[in-house]
Write a structure and sequence with these properties.
Distance between the termini: 28 Å
Largest sheet: 2 strands, antiparallel
Low-confidence stretches: none
Number of helices: 6
Radius of gyration: 14 Å
Strand content: 5-15%
Structural class: mainly alpha
Strand order of the largest sheet: 1-2
Length: 142
């Protein structure tokens, strides 16, 4: 099991995993982590860009950009994960929490603040989505 997968499962412990694209429950055995912004665009597996989905949904999405309306669901999932991990974070988990702070330019003390997290995601994701679209990545999935 990958460290990212363990991070998501710990953060969502006690909360049903739900696909942000289909709103269907995702069984732990069918869990795949989708790159919200395609990996072929961003070139990394940073935790803040990953979202739990069913394997079939991840395959169907491929290197497409999701509709901007899914950004709010992405924020809500990560808010839940952060708050599920933060109280008892260990070294690897702290590394992932640091990725939110560094990449989304979030103060560590504001990680659990939904408003600050949402603003950070909007400030980073919308310009990146616009760049990816100009580069020719297909948009408005699904």
């Amino acid at each position: 099991m990958t460290l990212e997968r363990k991070f998501f499962l710990k953060g969502m412990s006690g909360i049903p995993l739900e696909c942000i694209y289909t709103q269907q429950r995702v069984a732990e055995g069918d869990l795949s982590l989708d790159h919200f912004l395609p990996r072929s665009f961003v070139g990394h597996d940073r935790i803040w860009n990953l979202v739990p989905v069913a394997r079939s949904v991840n395959s169907a999405k491929g290197a497409r950009l999701p509709k901007q309306t899914y950004l709010e669901s992405l924020v809500l999932v990560h808010h839940s994960i952060i708050n599920g991990v933060l109280p008892s974070a260990r070294n690897t988990e702290k590394t992932f929490l640091d990725q939110y702070c560094t990449d989304l330019r979030l103060p560590a003390g504001e990680l659990s603040n939904i408003r600050v997290l949402r603003d950070a995601y909007i400030g980073v994701m919308l310009p990146m989505m616009a760049i990816a679209q100009r580069m020719g990545f297909p948009t408005d999935w699904p």
